[in-house]
Design brief:
alpha/beta, ten-stranded parallel sheet, 751 residues, 32 helices, 46% helix, two-stranded antiparallel sheet, elongated, ARM-like, Zyg-11_UBL_adapter
């Protein structure tokens, strides 16, 4: 079912939302005074649509680099008569005080503000406008929301030095929030009195105090008849905390987990504490004790532990205190504890580090608010994907994509996540992945490359892209991926391995794509970038893969693309060609790539005069005798000369070498080639060859063209016979056979 689900198209609602957000001006809005967005007056949108617009907007600003945020976006929702908001989720720096202020008239039921560091105490006042309707509120990681700016009185100069001092707001409470049931204050700033803040709330059902240190928690008992969920992640507990928790008899979800790396904890879990929870919290369905050290052994004897089939029945539990449970827990968090490796754990879902299932459960449970734990869980997944085989591939991929999107600026997650993606997208998993899923992978990989100049992330991202069919699978992000790769290659200091992979990708991206793609990439500075790389390698006197790939990429990008050929000449490409030939006389692969490229240049009539110098013609003539890479170098040299000869004797503007002498060497070269040679070349079109047939000015060019066609259609008939027919080659050959000027052997071959 997962397979099918991941491949179903987006809902119409999602597609429309996305379209409207990307085209606000053309759909819902018009521009007032050329700057402010205004809603069209005849629009009324219910909360089902407005919530989605706001939440998707936040998502797009966060994860899509091309999407431009609008200064006045939130003002579109300022009037409840035309737009209704009910449940919105805002994150990070995307939201500021004035945005919340803009929607203050809305009757919000659910407001999640996650890591919104730009919000200040002004927004606390705005919250009061939602107090009569708000049921669920999260201020997780809003570290400045309890600070206001205070202007110091007195001297002018002082004001210039320190115009605003941040002062903690002490008098705010949730007075009047009569319907508030669910509250997340995770990572609340120190100095705020949590007890005073919360006292006015009549019946809290869920409270999250992650990352807050409270020594006094007795006040929690005022909600002992209503509290069903309590999260105290990373709070250093004491006996008092445990006694208070044990009184909260309605609890269904309790999380006292911690990050065992973050700081020193005095508290150690004991058998007695777990027994106390099991006896008193009879409604418990979910418990998280991840990261805790057990002070004493809570497990049953190992002989008994290993017996029988793995069971989730409490009676058989390997963890002794859990034998008292009435039924198995829905969730048990044991990540980074020794308990997760036991055999019989009485829970349907366990987070831990023992196997793939436990690791995936951990990533799923902790991604949103605990990146520090998530990155370690993804690291474990990376090992599983690398060493064993992932059995829940789609789930794993989806979870890693979500984590990378959610924590775009978290270096650890970007490093481990991008590494895991490389192993999760490689060829053995290919069959199980939908187009949609693979596109999502490409999107987050490109996001990572954009946000992180860090070597490891860049390398992982480039390697992951190599797992895709290029250019086909990257076509939908063609411009962006080329820009990113060129950006990597243009950096002054470069990591050798990244350079190699990036050049390889660039080469693959311009191979077998339409000419308009090649022209666009040429305009981005592709030709210049490759020539710079060649220049660097030449200076180091190294001819490695980067050198060969760079020439190969130039060969591909100039194919039937005159603009790029011209750029090659303008940026001293010929000078580099001669220098490489001289510096690396034995490098066959290199010679083939360079001459393939010059073949493309020679096909452009306007550029041929630039090849007409004694030096170049001598070099091409000498390469006719080359045995490098079979016939390829000789064949390409002859191709270059064939196009030059096709311009006739009057275009031959040099004394040395003589035209006739070069023609003779061309005939000799063609006659020396084996007509059944297997080829290292790929033609998308025969047009440049076919144009050499209907002419009498250069019989040798006609012969080279006929030889080329004969060789290709006889060695690769399935590929090239249809191409020859499609491009009108047959009538051209028939006409040539009738020509008086054509050589007898050329006619034989044509026949």
């Amino acid at each position: 079912s997962l397979k099918m689900a991941s491949d179903s198209p987006e809902s119409l609602m999602t597609l429309c939302t996305d379209y409207c957000l990307r085209n606000l001006e053309g759909t819902l809005c018009y521009l007032l005074d050329n700057e402010t967005l205004r809603l069209h007056p005849d629009i009324f949108l219910p909360s089902e649509i407005c919530d989605k617009l706001v939440n998707e907007y936040v998502e797009l600003v966060k994860t899509d680099s091309i999407f431009e945020p609008h200064e006045s976006f939130f003002t579109l929702f300022s009037d409840p008569r035309s737009t209704r908001l009910a449940r919105i989720h805002l994150r990070e720096h995307i939201v500021q005080d004035q945005d919340l202020e803009a929607i203050r008239k809305q009757d919000l039921i659910e407001l999640y503000l996650t890591n919104c560091e730009k919000l200040t105490a002004k927004s606390l006042q705005t919250l009061v406008s939602f107090s009569h309707t708000l049921i669920s509120l999260s201020l997780f990681g809003c570290c400045n929301i309890f600070y206001e700016e205070e202007n110091p009185g007195g001297c002018e100069d002082d004001c210039l030095v320190n115009p605003t001092r941040q002062v903690l707001v002490k008098d705010f409470t949730f007075e009047g929030f009569s319907r508030l049931r669910i509250l997340n204050l995770g990572r609340l700033i120190e100095g705020v009195n949590v007890e005073t803040l919360l006292r006015p709330l009549a019946s809290l059902a869920a409270l999250d105090l992650s990352g807050i240190q409270l020594n006094e928690v007795a006040f929690l008992t005022q909600w002992k008849d209503s509290l069903v969920s309590l999260v105290l992640y990373n709070m250093d507990l004491s006996e008092e905390h445990i006694q208070v928790i044990a009184q909260l008899c309605k609890l269904r979800h309790l999380d006292i987990s911690r990050d065992h790396l973050s700081s020193y904890y005095k508290f150690k879990l004991t058998r007695r504490v777990l027994n106390l929870f099991v006896e008193n919290l009879v409604n418990l369905t979910s418990l998280d004790i991840s990261g805790h050290t057990m002070l004493e052994n809570c497990t049953i004897p190992s002989m008994e532990e290993k017996m029988g089939q793995t069971s989730i029945e409490p009676a058989k539990s390997s963890i002794a205190p859990f034998r008292g449970l009435k039924r198995p827990l829905q969730f048990l968090g044991l990540f980074e504890t020794s308990l997760c490796r036991l055999t019989h754990i009485p829970a349907y879902k366990v987070s831990g580090d023992k196997n793939e299932e436990q690791v995936l459960n951990a990533i799923e449970a902790y991604t949103e608010h605990r990146p520090e734990i998530t990155s370690r869980a993804i690291n474990l997944l990376f090992d599983i994907a690398r060493i064993e085989r992932c059995s829940q591939l789609l789930r794993a991929l989806q979870l890693v994509i979500t984590a990378l999107k959610c924590h775009k600026d978290d270096k650890n997650i970007q490093v481990t996540g991008s590494a895991a993606l490389f192993y999760l997208t490689n060829s053995e998993y290919r069959m199980e992945q939908s187009v949609k899923l693979r596109r999502q992978v490409i999107q987050v990989v490109l996001n990572g490359m954009e946000s992180y100049q860090e070597v490891t992330v860049q390398r992982n991202c480039c390697l992951t892209l190599c797992n895709f069919s290029i250019p086909e699978e990257l076509e939908f992000q063609y411009r962006r991926v080329n820009e990113l790769l060129l950006n990597i290659l243009n950096q002054s200091r470069q990591d050798e391995s990244i350079q190699r992979i990036a050049v390889h990708l660039c080469n693959a991206l311009v191979c077998q794509v339409d000419n308009d793609h090649k022209e666009a990439v040429g305009k981005m500075g592709f030709v210049m970038t490759m020539l710079k790389l060649i220049q660097k390698k030449l200076a180091d006197k190294t001819c490695d893969q980067v050198m060969e790939f760079s020439w190969s990429a130039l060969w591909n990008i100039t194919d039937e693309t005159p603009d790029n050929c011209e750029m090659f000449l303008n940026y001293s490409g010929m000078k580099l060609f001669l220098e490489c030939l001289k510096e690396f006389p034995e490098k066959q692969e290199l010679h083939r790539n360079m001459l393939g490229l010059l073949g493309n240049v020679a096909e452009v009539k306007e550029l041929r005069p630039q090849l007409m110098t004694s030096q170049f013609i001598s070099v091409f003539s000498n390469l006719l005798e080359s045995k490098a890479d079979g016939i390829e170098v000789s064949y390409n040299a002859c191709g270059v000369l064939s196009h030059i000869m096709f311009d006739g004797p009057e275009a031959w503007g040099i004394c040395e070498p003589h035209r006739e002498e070069v023609v003779k060497r061309m005939w000799a070269a063609i006659q020396s080639w084996d007509i059944n040679s297997r080829r290292n070349i790929n033609y998308r079109s025969f047009e440049p060859i076919l144009r050499l047939l209907p002419q009498g000015i250069s019989p040798v060019s006609q012969h080279w063209a006929t030889w080329a066609l004969y060789n290709l259609v006889s060695v690769y008939p399935d590929k090239y016979c249809p191409l020859l027919i499609k491009e009108g080659g047959i009538p051209l050959l028939k006409d040539m056979i009738k020509m008086a000027s054509a050589r007898q052997e050329t006619k034989e071959m044509a026949r």
